[in-house]
Structures are given as C-alpha cells and as structure tokens.
Design a protein that fits this description.
28% of the residues lie in helices and 21% in strands. It is of the alpha/beta class and 376 residues long.
C-alpha cells in the first residue's frame, strides 16, 4: 500500500515571449502559452467546427501500429484530417499533429521499440504518414511503457527502448526537416503517477521532445470500484491513501528532469461517473458497484437539468463533484472554475500551457472559452 506524499512546487516563473504578430485576428490565442486540443477521429464530430482561433495546436487521434508500421484505420480519417488542415486558413500559425496509440492502440509499442531495426522502421513510417497528410509533427501516446494496461505488450527494457525510439523518430524528423526547411514537432502524452516516472527515463527522453502533455486526469477511473476526484489540482485532505493530483504529477516530471516550460498540463473535458455508491459523506471516496465510466461535459450539463444532482466542492483539492442521492450516482467533473484555477497554476509554475481531451466533449465551447480567456 502506498501512502500519499505531498509534493509542493515552488513557483517557477519565466518571461513570456511576445505574442505572435502574424495573426488573422486580434482574438487569436497568445502563443506564449500552448493550448492543445485533441480531436478524436472516432467521434461523431465534424472537425471543420473546431474554433482554430482558440488553439495553438491540434492533435488528431489516433493512428494504429500494424506490423511495425503506423497507419490510420478509419475510413473517415482522411476526410477529417483534411478538414483540420483547412483550419489553417483561419489561424495560419496553427500546428496540427497526429497522435499514435492511445488506450486501445498501444499494444504494439513495446515490440516496435525493442530493436534497432524495428525502431527505424517505425520512425520512418511515422514520418511518411506525417508527410502524406501534411501534419506538422508526431505525438506518441504510449499507454504505458513497462506496464500492463489494455492488453498491451510490455517488457522491462521498455524504459530504455522508449528513449531510443524517441531518439530515432527525432532523427528521421530532422532528416525530413532538412529537405523541407522545416522543424517538425515531436511530443508525447505521459501518465501522471509515479509508476509512469519509474518506467521511463524522462530526463533523457525530453531531450528529443518539443514538449510533454501530462495527463493530469483519470486519477480515479474505469478500474476503480471507488469514487474519487479524477482531475483535482491539489491533494485532498479527505483521502487517506493512493492519492494523486495535478500538482503532484507536474512535480514528479520536474524531479525526473523535465524543464517546467516543456510541461503542458492536461485538462479533461469530461467527468467520471460511479453508480450504486455508498451514501456517506456525499459519496466522496466511497465504494461503488460500478467503476468510473467516462461522461462528457455536455452530457453532465444535461443531467443537471433534472435537478437531482447536488453540486459539491472539495476546497482542499479544488475539485467539483456531484451527488445524486436518489439514484446513488457520483460524478467527478471539470467546471470552468477548475479550468480558471489550473491556468493560474500553469502561469505561476512556469509551465508551457494546457492540453485538453477532447474537443467534441465540450458543451457550446464553454470549457474551451474559459481556458482561452483565462490563458490570455
């Protein structure tokens, strides 16, 4: 059993660069901070509806790994990618990357990273796919090196091989960059807990990366038959064991050797819902008969119209949650209040910006607008 360790970050300030002058509108996002939005290709959503003026980067998710090669799997991928590229007419400074892996398609990463020849094969393939669709870079979402997740292959050597894989991709991107007179981005999405830190060598890996998207969410998730905050900024004084928070996740990455301005704080545009929860202390940190399933922000807003949910707030964790006593339902969710607080945290600690999962889960851009206005 792991006891919670409180880690406090001393604010690290950095001087923000001037806002990019070449803009089509004075309302474009301040390029001093990154606002990175994932767009999931498998969602029933038209990417042409994305408001590019509020983003600096878009990550299109996901590409799969098949026989060591990187490829898109959905028939609609090419159409949706073309729509995203069209957004550059609105925001010429927008960078569009594609993301490889994710929870379902991380099963082959360990094999691809295991040998010199397989790393080179993967890297060349990833650059070829980038060039085919006109992306500005590659994002890796390996869930997770050295650990079991969704039926994925893993081995102890993943720790070293992950860094070697990133080095090879960086080499191939730079090689292509010389030909195109361009710098292609290489980024990763990282886990928030100590296990991820222990199974990677981020101090070395970050040398090949432009920035790192820290997934500061899913602290309680689909494996837990217990309620809890899934994206709290700070540790909760109501939790006794196995706690996590955005503050602790960022601190772990800094201790691992990553510069604070390379770290991008992940924000969820969704909540986690538990059913048949023990009715005690408004159900926070209580046993449930279900695990924490994903529920989008837009769906939560619809649920609130029923009047059955009581809005609750954990002051120590700076995190909101809902309790439906009639149906014994608990929901941990992200509100504009949390997003405003997290942008303050980002600025005070000299981080590179914010990332969110995922664009289509928002309701009328309420969360995105809060993020954009707070960041600017």
């Amino acid at each position: 059993m792991k006891f919670r360790i409180f880690i406090f970050i001393i604010p690290l300030f950095f001087t923000c660069s001037k806002q990019v002058e070449k803009q089509t509108s004075s309302e474009l996002v301040d390029a001093s901070y990154k606002i990175i939005g994932y767009v999931a290709g498998y969602e029933d959503f038209n990417p042409a509806l994305v408001d590019a003026t509020k983003l600096t980067h878009i990550n299109y998710a996901f590409a799969n790994i098949v026989d060591g090669h990187v490829q898109f799997e959905l028939e609609t991928d090419s159409i949706k990618i073309a729509s995203l590229m069209g957004l550059k007419k609105t925001n010429p400074d927008l960078k569009v990357l594609y993301s490889i892996g994710g929870w379902v398609w991380s099963d082959q990463f360990s094999h691809a990273a295991a040998f010199d020849w397989s790393r080179k094969k993967f890297a060349i393939s990833s650059v070829q796919l980038m060039k085919k669709h006109g992306f500005d870079g590659v994002d890796l979402d390996w869930e997770y090196p050295g650990q079991r997740s969704e039926d994925n292959a893993f081995r102890p050597s993943d720790k070293e091989n992950f860094t070697l894989l990133l080095a090879e991709i960086r080499k191939q991107l730079d090689k292509q960059g010389v030909v195109d007179d361009a710098h292609y981005l290489l980024t990763i999405a990282t886990g928030a807990d100590q296990a991820y830190i222990d199974n990677t060598d981020l101090g070395q890996a970050q040398k090949y990366l432009d920035f790192i998207n820290v997934m500061c969410y899913d602290f309680y998730h689909g494996w837990h038959f217990q309620t809890g905050h899934h994206a709290n900024v700070y540790p909760s004084d109501k939790e006794k064991f196995n706690g996590n928070s955005g503050q602790q996740a960022i601190a772990r990455h800094i201790v691992a050797g990553v510069s604070s301005n390379k770290l991008v704080m992940g924000i969820p545009f969704y909540g986690r819902q538990w059913a048949k929860v023990i009715a005690k202390n408004e159900s926070l940190y209580q046993s449930a008969m279900s695990t924490g399933v994903i529920v989008s922000y837009r769906d939560i807003i619809e649920k609130l119209k029923s009047g059955a949910y009581k809005k609750m707030y954990d002051e120590s964790a700076k995190s909101s949650y809902l309790w439906n006593a009639k149906d014994s339902i608990f929901i941990s969710w992200e509100t504009p209040k949390e997003i405003t607080l997290k942008t303050k945290f980002i600025k005070e600690n000299g981080l590179g910006g914010a990332m969110f999962w995922e664009y289509s889960l928002d309701k009328d851009q309420e969360l995105l607008n809060t993020l954009f206005n707070s960041m600017n």
